[in-house]
Amino acid sequence: xxxxxxxxxxxxxxxxxxxxxxxxxxxxxxxxxxxxxxxxxxxxxxxxxxxxxxxxxxxxxxxxxxxxxxxxxxxxxxxxxxxxxxxxxxxxxxxxxxxxxxxxxxxxxxxxxxxxxxxxxxxxxxxxxxxxxxxxxxxxxxxxxxxxxxxxxxxxxxxxxxxxxxxxxxxxxxxxxxxxxxxxxxxxxxxxxxxxxxxxxxxxxxxxxxxxxxxxxxxxxxxxxxxxxxxxxxxxxxxxxxxxxxxxxxxxxxxxxxxxxxxxxxxxxxxxxxxxxxxxxxxxxxxxxxxxxxxxxxxxxxxxxxx
Length: 307
Description:
Elements: H1 2-27, E1 29-37, E2 47-50, E3 56-58, E4 64-69, E5 75-79, E6 86-89, E7 95-100, E8 110-113, E9 116-119, E10 127-131, H2 143-147, E11 155-157, E12 167-169, E13 184-187, E14 190-191, E15 201-207, H3 210-213, E16 224-229, E17 239-249, H4 260-269, H5 286-290, E18 294-304
Parallel strand pairs: 1-7, 13-16
Antiparallel strand pairs: 1-4, 2-3, 2-5, 5-6, 8-9, 10-15, 11-12, 13-14, 15-16, 17-18
């Protein structure tokens, strides 16, 4: 009698378990599809996950995916680095086309610090950020000219050399050597990189105090200027930028000098004589001979986007 009751219980448990499994299998639903960006380019390695579960997969080289979800009414989450997360309800659809959009961030809300970025409201150190609309308008030849008079605590001085870009000082004069006052330039994350065309610059971050520049060590003793240049970006429309300017420079005032005759007369009146070989009394205005009007031309052309 006891053996019969035990056998009946085992059969009942087996029946209930099989019924549960068949019910679960009946509710499962297979979904296929493709993930692309706004330009309809397939996205490789995009994450496809059933919301609220660990059930998920990634897209292949063609942006395709296959996933078996728990229910025809399941919700799928599509995500990819630097793109907005997309949520789609299956709703008995066996094929889903997901289009991910760029997660654009306002430049004014982001500051480049060291080897990464942070929100401006989270920055406690002294950092000043400038975008294109903050730069000095007109033809400029250097970073110093772009930000001159735009940032407190940044001093720009220029000597008489017409070809000099000027000396930029952030923390005040710390040495008598002109070369030793320059800050560290970091261009697109590369410390000590070479020069860059002013037209290619989209933003400048100036790190002033020790806490902001600590990551660069002694090289940042005079502050750090972090430059972000233009770069291609997928999913954007094709664009073309052209810029040209012509500038003319000339000496505003020349030194008043004596002519050869006047100098000779001055020596005679004061009982002096000219050394042999220099007494030919030549009248030559060397300022006029050496200095001339300088004409500078600059042409800039840039194109990008979906070419």
